[in-house]
Amino acid sequence: MAPDVLRPREFCQLQRQLVERMAMRKKRNVQMAPMQALKIALCEHVESANPDIAQFTATLAEAVQAVTPDQGTGPAQAVASDLQMDWDMACTSQGFVTWLRDAATAGSARARVEGA
After folding, report:
1. Under a CB-based contact definition with an 8 Å cutoff, are residues 12 and 44 in contact?
2. CA distances, 49 to each of 7, 23, 70, 77 (Å)
3. Is this model's pTM higher than 0.70 or not?
4. Residue 36 located in a structural domain
C-alpha cells in the first residue's frame, strides 16, 4: 500500500483533531456542541475497530448503532453521513487528504505551542 493512502483509522484520528481544534480555536473554553461530540464518538468507534478501507462504511454504520443510547439514531446518522462524504472525498482526492493532514496537524502543533 502506498504511504500516502489514508486508512480509516488515520482518517478518524484526523477528523477528531479537527473537531478538537475547532473547540480550542478561541482562547476561552468553548463547549463542544452535541454534534461534535457525536462525531468524536463515531470516530473513536471506527478507530477502535480499525477496519480495512473497504469496510469503512459498514464499520461507520455499526458505530451509529453503538453510539446511540436508544433507537433514535437520526442525529448519529446525520453526522455519519457527513463523515461518509469526507471519507469519499479522501478516497478520490489526494488534495483533500493533504489538506486534512495539514489542517489537523497544524491545529495540534499550534495547541502545543499555546499550551507551553
Report:
1. yes
2. 12, 26, 21, 18
3. yes
4. yes
